Amino acid sequence: MIAIDTNVLVRLVTNDEPNQAARAARLFGRQDVFMAKTVLLESEWVLRYAYGLSRETIAKALRGALGLPRVTVEDADAVALALEHFEAGLDFADALHWASSRRADRFVTFDKKLIRRAAGLGDPLVGSP
């Protein structure tokens, strides 16, 4: 199994550098690939800010990459939950922090917008310190 960096995932998703995108696609086709949560976090940011992609397009691209047969993702349950919350309107970073903290009794933040949105998603365990 190999682990990838953000730029490999971004090349695969955007195909903006055809040579590198082809190399990334071949890699995903012939190797078992490990994706760290941090790679997904950074990829979402790059796709949103550098490429100007919509939430829907980013979610679809990340789900597509994660659904490839040879891909293993770190903490798959948290990533799946984070993607659901992202699609429901949360910032991806916030959603991933929150989903990755599910073993804790509470998730606290000073971000009032996150608290409101979490409550709207039915989670009363997100609150202020």
Please tell me about this protein's structure.
This protein has 129 residues and is mainly alpha-helical. The protein has 2 domains: 1-74, 3-Layer(aba) Sandwich (Rossmann fold), CATH 3.40.50; 76-123, no CATH class. It is 60% helix and 9% strand. It has helices at 6-14, 18-30, 37-49, 55-66, 76-87, 92-100, 112-120; strands at 2-3, 33-35, 71-73, 107-108, 126-127. The strands form 2 sheets. A 3-stranded parallel β-sheet has the order 1-2-3. A two-stranded parallel sheet has the order 4-5. β4, α7 and β5 (126-127) form a beta-alpha-beta unit. α3 runs antiparallel to α4 (55-66) and α5 (76-87) runs antiparallel to α6. It is elongated, with a radius of gyration of 16 Å.
One letter per element, helices H and strands E, the order comes to EHHEHHEHHEHE
Secondary-structure class: mainly alpha
CATH class category of the largest domain: Alpha Beta
Instruction: Give the radius of gyration.
Output: 16 Å
Task: Give the biggest beta sheet.
Answer: 3 strands, parallel
Strand order of the largest sheet: 1-2-3
Span of the ends, CA to CA: 41 Å
**Strand portion, in percent?**
5-15%
The CATH homologous superfamily name of the largest domain equals: 5'-nuclease
Q: Percent range for helical residues?
A: 55-70%
What's the rounded overall pLDDT mean?
92
Keywords:
Rossmann fold, 2 domains, 129 residues, 3-stranded parallel sheet, two-stranded parallel sheet, mainly alpha, 60% helix
